[in-house]
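Section 3.1: Structural characterization of target chains.
Under the original work plan, the team committed to producing a structural model for every single-chain target entering the pipeline before any wet-lab resources were allocated. The record below documents one such target. The sequence was received from the expression subgroup and is listed exactly as submitted; it comprises 194 residues.
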Amino acid sequence: MGKESNNVLEVCNSRYQEIYGNYNISLKKKIVVSHFGEFSQDLVNSISNGVEEAMIVAEDKKGTVKRMFSILVEGLQNIRLHGEKDEDGNQASFLIIAQDEDAYLVTLANLVLITNKPVIEERLSEINSFDEKQVKSLYMEVLTNGIISNKGGAGLGFITMAMKSKNKLNFSIEPINDNLACFCIELKINRKKS
């Protein structure tokens, strides 16, 4: 394993530990699930189904469960399909879901090319500038006119997450080295809204 690769994993793991610790310190928040590392399709399915079951047991409204499921599928597929790898082929990514009485906080992170930082920031800032109606309109426009990328997406992931969470998308992109950055996005899903 190269020195550069070690640094990439250390930085991403440090960010994961920081967020996990912040959620864990708060006595009102409960960690529902967390994972640091690669996300296979089987793991994505297992996490999505496990979170859905936990929400049903917690007696969350059906609409809230459906919104969470959609967000998880979009977010985890985004990590799988678009997450970059370090020089050793490792995909340093993570998921943390915390809950309190009022909401779920979903934090997803993966590596991105530093050259993609401006495009991601611009896209998310644009989505965050819209109200719910405008986000839905943008979703329909991209769904109808979207161009499929070479990785199989039409750019609906962030729009879907914003639409389903009904909240702004908090994000950060922290450079790790000259090539890679740790992209972290946090969504709040209110438990009272269905």
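The helical segments are 3-25, 41-57, 62-82, 117-128, 132-145, 157-165.
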